[in-house]
Structures are given as C-alpha cells and as structure tokens.
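Posting here for the record, re: zinc ion.
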Amino acid sequence: MRIDLHTHSRASDGTDTPAELVRAAAQAGLDVVAITDHDTADGWVEAATAAADAGITLVPGMEISTGHRGRSVHLLAYLPDPTSPPLADELTRVLAGRESRVPEMVERLRRLGIEISTDDVSAAAHGAAATGRPHIADALVTLGVVADRTEAFDRYLGAGRPAYVNRYAVPLELAVQLVGEAGGVSVVAHPWGRGGLGRPDEATLAHLHDVGLAGIEVDHQDHDPATRELLRAMARDIGLVATGSSDYHGTGKVDHDLGCNTTAPEEYERLMELARGAAARSDRVTPVVTSGPATGTA
Ligand SMILES: [Zn+2]
Ligand SMILES: [Zn+2]
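Prediction output follows.
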C-alpha cells in the first residue's frame, strides 16, 4: 500500500487538473491519494470521478491557511463537510483575503518598476478557484523577471520581501475545532518547514492534540532525517498520527514528486478511524473516500 496524503491541483496552485493529478498518482503506483488544495474543495468532484476510473482510492481534503502565535501554519483537513457553515465562512474569508491581496501585491511590484498587471496573473492562474502568490510568481516567470517560483518568492513575494502583503488566516485552534465539527480530522502540514509551527515543543503539540488535532505530517521534503525522527517520536509520545506525503504541485514545485514520501498503512488506518469517529459525532453529511475498481496489482 502506497499512500500520499498531500497534493495540489489547479483548483489551487498545482499545475495538473484534478483528473490529471489523480491519473498521475495512479501512474506513480500510489494506492491512495488525498487531494488537498489550499482552502477549497473545488477539485473534489472531478478528482473522485477520475479516481473511480483510474482504480485508485481518493481521500478528499484541503490545506487550510491558519495562523498561530504570529506564524502562518498550514493545516491539512481530511473529510470535513466543506459546506458546514462556520468552516465555509472561514474559508470564504481566507479566499477573499487572497483575492484582494493579488492586486495589492501587483501594485507594489509596479512601484518597484516591474511591468506586471493583474491580467498577467489571471492568465498564469488558468482559471484557478483563487489566484495567489504562486500565480504572481508564475506571471513574473512568464514576463522574464525571474527564472522560477523560488526566485520570485526569495526576491519579491516572500514574507518580508518588498512586494509582500499579509492576509487573513484562520486561528489554528479554531480551524482544528471547525474541521472536527464539520466531521473531519486535521493534521498540521510540514510543522518544521515553511508554513509550519516553527520549532514546536512537545507541550504545544500536546495542547493541540487536546483541542482535537489528529496528527502531524512527519515525512515531508522540508524535514531533514533528524527532524523526521524527532517529530515521529513526539507523535508517538502524544498519540498523534504521523503522516508522510509529497506536497505535489505538478510542475509548480520541484523535488515534490508524487509518492516521494508516503504514509504507513497503519497510520492511515488510524487517521481514517478518527475520521469515522468525527463524522459520527458531527451532524454533517461528510464526503466519502472514493475507491476505484481493483487494479489487480495489490
Ligand atoms: Zn503547505
Ligand atoms: Zn501543500
């Protein structure tokens, strides 16, 4: 069983359509893939249809933009009802903040003497549900201002860089709570990478576990081997599920190939068990895990 629980499609900042993403996951030899676009469930239906055809199990999820103690933290949410009103309201706030941020950042780039327009960003977004910094980065690449997304973030778009504009993020503990009320489970993405918790002590993670956090992403390209072992030990001590995933973005992010990190089957089963419990406790109709026909390669 090869399980990858963190991937992006064109519904946010990946470069594959949801169907292409699912087919690529099947081709990469994965048995289970989760689609986790930023702050949206927009890719779920297309991905589920493709999963049934491709013979791969699809877990619907999303990566929520949250904030904790002044830091930006990415929270993976699996199987919540995205129409649960308090969760949907927060996601709307995040997406609205991101939309207004793009014109503000474009204006700052123009003041820096770069000939870029919001139309350039829209063109780079290929009809994505929400345009964001990665699309501004792609526009800068197309315009020949920078060589790739990394250079765009390092020079202009990253926190503290000259075109950076802050935006709304859901308070982390509130997000964990709202995902639970929506019948889903949450996992902190790349806790020691960019968009992570910083250097979390065990007490912080234990507290988050107390408020309903199900797990932490241990195996991620942002974590070196020593960090992974430390996080794995903390997860074990606290009783958090330890996941592993690629954070695939198609051609939008190098060194994040599908299946480059995977989640152990027993950890996946624990996570799904917690999700079933959360779904049973909530009054929402939660989404289902889609399984395709047997591929005969089990
Ligand atoms: Zn992330
Ligand atoms: Zn991600």
